[in-house]
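Ops channel
N.P.: pipeline sanity check, posting one input/output pair.
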């Protein structure tokens, strides 16, 4: 009888915990950079929802950590001077911005800063509206609810870890706790089957791959890099799901080499329709853009 009851309990537990099957990446991945930075305040919930309405298949975003351990969307681990206004309505200069260190602020303080009302000096089409840096958990909840409400297709989340060795314990945690905090949100929200983690920092990708070998990862490559793809992969120590260089580095031979190694090639950040077409003709597997409306006919 005890054996029967134990088997029954195990069966019920399995029924309550269905296995998660990884979603297949689209044949051509249309990624909205920071949501849709060219049109809406970057890395905000309105930017993500607008990108969905424009038909993206992946929402690209950046993650930093607050003093109280919240994973928050932000391109810099500080309040960037171009987009941020303090709670008392004050602007500041590029020379001052790093003193507003998000890693030294609790999330309530971070949320009190505005990042949408200030006219962006480089993105003139960007809408002006009151906006704040959201928690990753809140972005996921809002996006998933919006998809369900509108009946739109599921989207992927491409999340960049904003870290580098010089910033350890100053602007962000070290790679292992950073990765653990990020994965805690992803696992709690049940979206690991539709997540890509990308970074310029090999260390966070290595930690993530060691702990979650089936997790999709993308290696970001700066446009000024003079090293070969093979050298980048050797330094990383494994073959990631995606190789993601600055778009000017893309050549037909690079596309072929990536595909030969079983990687997708998705370049960043492409804001010109003719460049998009040129890259698509080379055979890239997707494009990251500030203007997802350019994907439309």
């Amino acid at each position: 009888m005890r054996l029967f009851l134990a088997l029954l309990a195990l069966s019920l537990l399995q029924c309550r915990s269905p296995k998660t099957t990884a979603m297949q990446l689209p044949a051509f991945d249309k990624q909205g950079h920071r949501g849709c930075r060219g049109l809406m305040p970057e890395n905000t919930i309105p930017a993500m929802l607008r990108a969905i309405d424009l038909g993206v298949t992946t929402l690209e975003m950046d993650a930093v950590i607050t003093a109280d351990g919240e994973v928050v969307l932000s391109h810099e681990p500080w309040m960037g001077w171009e987009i941020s206004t303090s709670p008392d309505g004050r602007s500041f200069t590029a020379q001052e911005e790093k003193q507003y260190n998000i890693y030294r602020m609790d999330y309530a303080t971070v949320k009190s800063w505005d990042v949408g009302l200030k006219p962006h000096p480089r993105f003139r089409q960007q809408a002006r509206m009151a906006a704040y840096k959201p928690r990753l958990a809140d972005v996921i909840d809002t996006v998933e609810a919006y998809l369900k409400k509108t009946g739109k297709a599921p989207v992927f989340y491409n999340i960049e870890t904003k870290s580098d060795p010089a910033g350890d314990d100053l602007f962000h945690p070290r790679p292992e706790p950073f990765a653990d905090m990020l994965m805690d949100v992803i696992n709690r929200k049940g979206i690991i089957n539709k997540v890509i983690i990308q970074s310029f920092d090999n260390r966070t990708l290595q930690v993530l791959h060691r702990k979650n070998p089936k997790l999709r990862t993308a290696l970001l490559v700066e446009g000024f890099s003079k090293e070969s793809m093979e050298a980048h992969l050797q330094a990383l120590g494994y073959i990631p799901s995606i190789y993601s260089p600055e778009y000017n580095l893309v050549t037909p031979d690079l596309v072929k080499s990536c595909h030969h190694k079983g990687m997708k090639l998705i370049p960043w950040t492409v804001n010109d329709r003719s460049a998009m077409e040129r890259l698509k003709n080379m055979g890239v597997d997707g494009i990251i853009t500030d203007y997802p409306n350019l994907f439309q006919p």
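N.P.: looks fine end to end. Residues 1-20 have pLDDT under 50 and may be disordered.
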